[in-house]
Amino acid sequence: MLSVLAGEMSIAEAARREKVSEQSIGRWKADLLEAGKTALAAGRSGPPTREEQLEAQVEELTQALGEAAVELRVWKKSAEGRLGPSRTSR
Fold this sequence. Notes:
Helices cover 74% and strands 0% of the residues. The chain has helices at residues 2-5, 11-18, 22-42, 50-83.
């Protein structure tokens, strides 16, 4: 397939060599080129680095903590409505 991309071999030659249709080679070539464009547009290649993984995890945990804080406030307000103000809310 790389020889087809490099122009060293025609699609017809590659199809005969691999015993597949020319359409298959053409589709594979188009798919490979599109995947390459997508990877280049993303600006990096390969799996995420450890730092990127940790940054994503910190972001996820920060969001979860914020949601938990909001829920806790709602529960406290609900409890105050039923039981009166708590000693710690003053």
